[in-house]
Amino acid sequence: MTAAHSATSPKHIGISPRFAFEPKSSAKRRDGLAALAFLAPYLIFFVLFLAYPFFWGVWISFHDWELVGTLRKFIGLANYWDMFEDPIFRVSIRNTLLFTAITVPVMVAASLGLALALNRENRFHAVLRVIFFTSSVFSVTVATLIWIMVLSPDRGLFAHLFNSLGLQPIAFLGSPDWAMPALTITTVWWSVGFPMILFLAGLQQIPQELYDAARIDNASAWRRLTRITLPSLKRTIVLVVVLQIIGQLQIFGQPLIMTGGGPADRTRSMVQTIYETGFNEWQLGYASAMSLFLFGVMFLASMLQLYISRQED
Amino acid sequence: MASVEVRGVRKSFGAFPVLHGIDLMIEPGDFTVIVGPSGCGKSTLLRLIAGLEDASGGDIVIDGDVVNNVAPGGRDIAMVFQNYALYPHMTAAQNMAFGLENTRVPKDEIRRRVAAAAETLRIQPLLDRKPREMSGGQRQRVAIGRAIVRDPKVFLFDEPLSNLDAALRVQMRIELAKLHHQLKSTMIYVTHDQVEAMTMADRIVVMNEGRMEQAGRPLELYHAPRNTFVAGFIGSPKINLLPGSVQAIGSEGVTIALSVGGTLAAQVVPGDLRPGNEVIVGVRPESLHQASGSEGFAARVDVIERLGNETVVYASLPTGETIIFQDRGAGSIGIGSTVRLSADPEHCHLFHKDGTALSRTEQALAAALKV
């Protein structure tokens, strides 16, 4: 044994024999392989069905690419420039943003209000929780058909109400002014259950002692809501807002079934335009560019929400 | 500073009764500790006084006014909770100011009171911190500060030290006692720790299974417990309870033949006690001493705890029960050895078979208090 070798022997540098004779890299490799084995099912799913289609979509968006046929012409960013010149797409951007701007606050307020009202430990409130959640399990077709009937100017619930008051029933879905609010009401009715459950879970995490302390501190019900409940729910509120923005920016089924995007394109959404461009007009490259724009909007909105919530922390 | 009176208060949760009619009078400025095992109803009683629970029957009277229908915020009380209950998104200063803001106290006055409380509790450096940035002890100080700034008539403490480590608990105990001395407010303190009760209380209330077993000064409860439950709950190490039967009743007291063999005498007022009656003798560990000859009873040493200032010995009786005593023989006893133990009649308690105590004679009480 050379002097240099003995100077760096395990004994000399004071590490335990167990670690001295078991190379660290092999233990790490073993751990890494085990971790990979556990992650593999999701990784395969992620790569095949999320990452690959995403990058494939990015690649397609740089082409004049027809759904059927052999046209695959690289055109760089032309699809992106065209998109902003396209009056139909600009209208659908406006409509989608307007729908999101109306629906998200209403959805958050309605689901929070329901959660606050139903956050009681008794059978009656448990039944009400189930009832309010039930609408969420309907498909978009069922939910929209129900509301088409409710809003029908001939035999709908509102028509009866208007008639009983001696008023002319409004054709909500045919009115340029009322069609969008009608879609909002349908969407809120259909999807309020899930955010309500998230808020209920958040409410049940708030220790009862905080409310006891607040009552002893002479806080009114309003002060308890604004100074205890809402600050304690901040993370849940951010989560619900982000999920709702992402969800509502992708609105598709409701306008497609209830209004067909009308009247006069007043309810045409971005996803509807993307769908029609890709699958009716077969312009897959152009539709991909629109999809990536929508992805960018959703990504930015989510990041902005998270940034704001972290700033306030 | 206000009195608190609990008149025949009952409380049930559904069909399950937790308080069976409590009568209690707390004088203005008293530090009263309500003590008892888990589930005895002590915290429920405190919450009833606070107004956080509604009584099923009876009255809560604060400063002469029945407050049954007064909301917690209107009772002019402050409460310190076991888990601190600090508002997590507010700083220490905001936590302390919250109650004052709710009653529209002017901002300058709020600042002055928060600063004064922070100085009293030495928490000035914590005022801008949120609860998650503080240790358990610091949070508890802030929680106490939140109570102090309101200058309430009555302070309520619900096991406030139970989440702290042993050393911090002792320190906070001393500080709370000092705080009471300084503020001279009426304080009601709930704990399951009899050491906290003995060290801090002007008056202790012992509760068991929703009933008040006894209320009195700490030494009164220690030396004249009303029953075996109080005798067993107050005092550490625990009192030894030895069953036996009355052998003789004389002018010097009652002589009892113990079930484990041997005899002990107790200086009590015999009342209607007769020879042959079954009784229970209570002897505190510090009252037992090693005996010679045939005096007392025999026990086999199992465990010796040397604590420095005292040595506590755990020994087995022939019946298998454990008896605890203090060894004053400077380590002369070894594990496995057999010792004979006895106690002076003036230091023995005597209970009827149902657990109720016989009154100790005045000489016995005087001797006990002299110790």
TrEMBL record, chain A:
Q: What are the alphabetically sorted keywords of the record? A: Cell membrane, Membrane, Transmembrane, Transmembrane helix, Transport
| PROSITE patterns found in the cross-reference section | ABC_TM1 (PS50928)
Per the record, GO CC terms?
plasma membrane
| Entry's localization field | Cell membrane
Q: What is this protein called?
A: Sugar ABC transporter permease
Q: From which domain of life does this come? A: Bacteria
One GO process term, biological-process aspect? transmembrane transport
The chain positions of domain ABC transmembrane type-1 read: 93-305
**How does the entry describe its membrane topology?**
Multi-pass membrane protein
From TrEMBL, chain B:
GO molecular-function term, one example from the UniProt record: ATP binding
Where does the record place it? Cell inner membrane
Q: Name one Pfam family in it.
A: TOBE_2
Q: Where does the signal peptide begin and end?
A: none
Gene Ontology cellular component? ATP-binding cassette (ABC) transporter complex, substrate-binding subunit-containing; maltose transport complex
InterPro entries linked to this entry? AAA+_ATPase (IPR003593), ABC_transporter-like_ATP-bd (IPR003439), ABC_transporter-like_CS (IPR017871), ABC_transpr_MalK-like (IPR015855), ABC_transpr_MalK/UgpC-like (IPR047641), Mo/tungstate-bd_C_term_dom (IPR008995), NA-bd_OB-fold (IPR012340), P-loop_NTPase (IPR027417)
Instruction: Indicate the segments forming the ABC transporter domain, all copies.
Output: 4-234
Entry keyword set:
ATP-binding, Nucleotide-binding, Transport
Which Gene3D superfamilies is this protein grouped with?
2.40.50.100, Nucleic acid-binding proteins, P-loop containing nucleotide triphosphate hydrolases
Q: How does it sit in the membrane?
A: Peripheral membrane protein
Which NCBIfam families does UniProt cross-reference here? PRK11650.1 (NF008653)
Family the entry assigns: Belongs to the ABC transporter superfamily.
PANTHER family named in the record: MALTODEXTRIN IMPORT ATP-BINDING PROTEIN MSMX, MALTOSE_MALTODEXTRIN IMPORT ATP-BINDING PROTEIN MALK
What is the recorded name of this protein? Sn-glycerol-3-phosphate ABC transporter ATP-binding protein UgpC
Classification from the root reads: Bacteria, Pseudomonadati, Pseudomonadota, Alphaproteobacteria, Hyphomicrobiales
